[in-house]
Task: inverse folding
């Protein structure tokens, strides 16, 4: 079959894996020389056996899934090697002694001292204000669902404790933030306004939002907020829900020492009564989940 006609008959990933399987045979057909070369007369005569396009897509997704699993295992192995090297360096040079209590390095002491001046509830309030300041628009409604997803992603970027966020039908959602944490604090301090209409709760800027933004600068979180805006400014609520859901699933799988593959993530979502219905939605298609796994890997360096 000629490659010029493949678009209507072959899935791209199916073709990629087929050619990967035939690598040795292709190299053997190459013209001899310092570097073997292939030309159209050789490649154009390759016979490719293929099922229906729909089945090809499924085969391609399965093989992509295996590639992701292998990549995840390699990354985990590399991290363990680095951990071992670090421990060898510290233990074998006497930097860490097992029979003595170590003093905290000065950098850690400074971080602890800073943390005593605020708590995570107030931090959430400040970050919600920063989200409203950056994402609010008179043209487009900013609702609670979007604010919660953006707060989740921002906290993930900061490698903060994520225990407040639970598996809910709308994705990772923190009742704590809504009822006794960041949101009520932000409202009471007039960092934000929250009104209601037939679409739900609407977030807008409060009279004292400048005070919250001052804390963002003081606590050196401005770059985190800029990252959030650069990555998600024009994302829809559904896209944010997909991203936050898949990321939480990846984190939960890592806790169980499981690879974040399409198969494992779908099984996790399917087994959760709050999340199972997500798989019936188009946004949670296999291809979208695959792409989001890769996106999470880049965003959070997993």
Result:
């Amino acid at each position: 079959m000629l490659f010029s006609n493949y678009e209507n008959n072959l899935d791209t990933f199916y073709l990629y894996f087929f050619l990967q399987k035939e690598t040795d045979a292709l190299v053997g057909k190459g013209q001899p020389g310092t570097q073997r070369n292939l030309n159209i007369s050789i490649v154009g005569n390759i016979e490719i056996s293929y099922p229906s396009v729909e089945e090809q897509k499924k085969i391609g997704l399965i093989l992509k899934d295996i590639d992701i699993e292998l990549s995840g295992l390699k990354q985990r192995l590399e991290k363990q090697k680095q951990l071992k090297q670090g421990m060898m360096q510290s233990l074998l040079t006497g930097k860490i002694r097992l029979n003595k209590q170590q003093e905290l390095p000065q950098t850690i002491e400074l971080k602890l001292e800073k943390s005593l001046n605020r708590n995570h509830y107030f931090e959430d309030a400040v970050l919600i204000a920063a989200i409203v300041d950056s994402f609010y628009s008179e043209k487009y409604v900013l609702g609670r669902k979007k604010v919660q997803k953006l707060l989740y992603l921002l906290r993930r970027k900061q490698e903060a404790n994520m225990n407040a966020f639970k598996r809910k039908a709308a994705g990772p959602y923190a009742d704590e933030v809504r009822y006794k944490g960041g949101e009520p604090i932000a409202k009471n301090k007039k960092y934000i306004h929250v009104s209601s209409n037939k679409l739900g709760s609407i977030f807008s800027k409060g009279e004292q939002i400048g005070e919250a933004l001052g804390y963002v600068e003081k606590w050196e979180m401005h770059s985190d907020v800029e990252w959030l805006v650069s990555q998600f400014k024009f994302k829809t609520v559904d896209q944010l829900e997909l991203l936050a859901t898949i990321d939480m699933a990846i984190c939960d799988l890592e806790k169980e020492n499981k690879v974040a593959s399409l198969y494992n993530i779908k099984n996790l979502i399917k087994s959760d009564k709050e999340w199972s219905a997500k798989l019936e939605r188009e946004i949670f298609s296999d291809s979208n989940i695959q792409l989001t796994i890769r996106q999470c890997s880049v965003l959070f360096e997993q």
Observations:
- Residues 104-117 have pLDDT under 50 and may be disordered.
- Residues 110 and 116 are 10 Å apart (CA to CA).
- The first strand starts at residue 166 and ends at 168.
